[in-house]
Design goal:
The chain is an alpha+beta fold. The protein has a single domain, classed as Sandwich (Jelly Rolls), CATH 2.60.120. The protein is built from five helices and eight strands.
């Protein structure tokens, strides 16, 4: 092989490994539009920008797998991602289709549990990530801002839980009607 020849790979593993912290641009606007961060002042948004990491994924590449440790919150900058859950080895349920501006994995910021589903890029996608240890340190340093972030995450979770309860109740009522 000629020493001047360059080998190009399509794997995003190495590219993701050496990504630098996120640059400003649309990411700052994305952060300010998300419930966990929308009540933060510009000062804290700029501090958060320092702990955000960019990742790129190719079509059909897994961002994380069901059962992996939950290590961070993912914000979709470009592309699309689907969230799936394996019921057993033969049955997979698609839980969500996400697009620019959506976020996922927020439960990882609150607990030390494993991922309840898998996230897969359905087209080339750019994702910004806040890793739990970095956010924990941020919250420790800036507790007032941390409370706002945790309150925002709690609001998201409670909203999703209410929707899930409504859907469950609706299914229960439908089942009762069928049984009559």
């Amino acid at each position: 092989m000629d020493k001047n020849q360059i080998i190009k790979t399509e794997s995003s593993f190495w590219a993701n490994l050496f990504k630098t912290p996120a640059e400003k641009s649309d990411l700052e606007e994305l952060l300010q539009s998300m419930p966990p961060f929308e009540n933060l002042s510009g000062k804290y948004i700029k501090l958060l920008m320092q702990i955000i990491h960019n990742r790129a994924y190719e079509t059909n590449e897994y961002i994380f797998y069901q059962g992996d440790p939950g290590i961070g919150l993912y914000m979709l900058r470009e592309g699309s991602v689907k969230i799936i859950q394996s019921i057993d080895e033969n049955e997979i349920v698609e839980l969500a289709n996400l697009s620019r501006g959506d976020f996922f994995g927020e439960l990882a910021l609150l607990d030390d549990e494993v991922r309840s589903g898998s996230a897969i890029a359905t087209e080339p996608s750019s994702v910004a990530v806040i890793f739990k240890p970095d956010l924990d340190e941020f919250i420790e340093r800036y507790p007032k801002a941390g409370i706002k972030i945790l309150r925002g995450i709690s609001n998201i979770i409670s909203t999703r839980l209410r929707r899930l309860n409504d859907e469950y109740f609706s299914l229960y009522i439908d089942k009762l009607k069928v049984e009559e």
